[in-house]
Each structure stands twice: as C-alpha cells, then as structure tokens.
Design goal:
Length: about 325
C-alpha cells in the first residue's frame, strides 16, 4: 500500500507541472491588455510600456513562466494587479469559503445520489426507479446557473424565505445560523447535477452487480435483500462509486464558479470571475492553479481509497510498475 501511494504521489509532479504550464499560457493568451485596465484607454504608449516593464510583461513568455514557477515553488503567488495585495492573502481565505460550499454540496449529492441509486436498483423498473430515471435526467441536464436563478426567484424574491446573496447579512450577521441560511440555496443549486450523476452511476453499477451469479446464489440461500445489498452488492460497487463521488467533489471545488457568481458567495470562483473582469493575471493564475491542485489531490485520494478497498488494483499497479 505504501508503494502504491508513493507511486501515485510521484505522478502528481508532471501533472501539476502541466497544469501550471496551461494555466500560465491561457492567462497570457486571453484577449485584452492588462495595461489598458490599469491606465485606461487614453494612456500613452510610453506609460503602458513602463507598466509592462515594471510587471515583467515585456519579457519572453518562457522567461516569465520560469520566474513565475520559481516563485510558486517558494510559496509566492505574486501581487494582485487590481487590489494591490498579495494573491495568497486573497485566494486562500476565499478557497476556504469555496470548500465550505463544495463540501456541503457534495454531502447533499452523496446522500441523495447514493440512496436514490441503491433504492432504484433494488426495485428495478418500478415506480420509484422510473421516477429516479426521470429526475436524474432532468436535474442532470439543468445548468447550475439557471437553476440558481430559479431558486433565487422562488425562495428569495417571491416567497422571501431565504437570503439570495452573500455568506452573511451585511448588518448584524455572521453567526452559524446566518451562514447556514445563506448556504442553503447555493448548496442546492451546486449539488443538484452531481446528485443526479451519482444516482445514475450507482443505479447502473448496482444493477450490473445484482445480475451476477454469486448474487443469485445468495438469493437462493434465502439471504435477506438488505443483507445482499449491503454486504455483497454495495461492497463490490464501492470502487466505481468512490470514483464518481471523487470526480464530482473535484468538479464542485472548481466548477461552482457560476453558482458563486449568482449568489455572490465569497469563494475562489467568485474571486476568479472578478479577476478575469479586471484582467488581474496573477490572481487568475493563482486561483486557477489552486483549483487544479485541489482536483488532482481529490483524484489521488480516490485512487488510494480504491486501492485500499480493492486489492486487485494494488496488484495490477505493482505488476505494471515492473
């Protein structure tokens, strides 16, 4: 198991190198000029050239990338052009807020997806199974931003049950109850699609396992349905279920940008959106790199969990490494 984890950790190095390269290149190839954002459209070319030189933007891209990567390896993400603050001071507190939203959305998606998928697979082609298929098809196809706007329209503007924006009240807020109330709508908006995807994957995986011969033998022995589902089917279905759950968590860590914008949730996605509008390249690079690193680490955790629950994965990886 230790060898497996070490090999997986070694594979992260080239992956993160590739992520950093694409983050850097895409940020610089985006249309627009940062000097225009800083000086306005009427600044002289001499002024813009001085700003480019002070920021190091007049150097070749390979040189800029080398300097940026060396600073990243030292834990320095640079200074925000728009806010004149260190990028680390901006993105890490915002990432903590995104982590709160992602974990609550993932918990909602896991509970709904697992229970709906298992129950639908235990009674295939029944009313609940058909309802699950229809529900997952609908919620899996709804864009999160459109669903978020619908939730705001109904629960905030029409019925006035829940707050629509922010993490706390502007005046007199900040307690745990206030945060929970502000968390409900973005959690539902972000977790609906992952819940549908997980439910469909769990249902398909469980149906495949329940059709195996050893399950038929267990039924013939008179073992109860609940025991068969829990001890035989679900245990063997854990690797693909863990994989899809991990992928959805990684998606939520980096893909809740639109949800954060709709609900003005002060997360790293909302910070990234503001940086894109301001052409704040250091913040764009830092936020994108943190999101990419989080996705890679989540996949590493899923691989380790799958190897722990399924010894065949460790054996196959050991043979392949030879």
């Amino acid at each position: 198991m230790t060898r497996f984890i070490v090999m997986r950790l070694l594979t992260i190095v080239p992956i993160m190198f590739g992520v950093s390269f694409f983050v850097f290149i895409l940020a610089h190839l985006a249309p627009g000029d940062v000097t225009t954002t800083l000086t306005g459209p009427y600044a002289t070319e001499e002024t813009r050239e001085q700003i480019r030189e002070s920021l190091g933007l007049n150097e070749p891209l390979p040189v800029q990338y080398g300097k940026w990567l060396s600073h990243i390896l030292q834990g320095e993400f640079g200074k925000s052009i728009a806010n004149r603050r260190m990028v680390a001071e901006l993105i890490f507190p915002k990432f903590a807020n995104s982590l709160i939203l992602a974990l609550t959305s993932a918990a909602l998606a896991y509970v709904i997806g697992l229970f709906a998928g298992i129950f639908a697979a235990s009674r295939p082609y029944g009313y609940f199974d058909r309802f699950t298929i229809a529900g997952t098809l609908m919620f899996g196809s709804i864009p999160p931003y459109w669903f978020g706007l619908l939730l705001v329209l109904l629960f905030s503007l029409t019925w006035r049950w829940l707050p629509a924006t922010g993490m706390t009240k502007i005046v007199g807020g900040g307690g745990p109850i206030d945060v929970i109330l502000h968390l409900i709508l973005p959690t539902i908006a972000a977790g609906a699609a992952p819940a549908a995807i997980i439910a469909r994957t769990v249902r398909a995986t469980m149906l495949e396992i329940l059709s195996q011969n050893y399950i038929k033998v267990a039924r013939a022995k008179g073992i109860r349905r609940g025991v068969i589902l829990r001890k035989h089917a679900l245990r063997n279905a854990l690797p693909p279920i863990a994989t899809i759950c991990g992928l959805q968590l990684g998606y939520l860590l980096g893909g809740v940008l639109f949800v954060e914008v709709i609900f003005a949730w002060p997360g790293i996605g909302y910070q990234l959106w503001q940086a894109i509008q301001a052409r704040d390249i250091p913040t764009i690079q830092g936020a994108s790199l943190i999101i990419g690193a989080a996705f890679v680490l989540v996949n590493l955790a899923v691989d380790v969990f799958n190897a722990y629950t399924d010894p065949k994965i460790r054996i196959s990886e050991g043979v392949r490494s030879r």
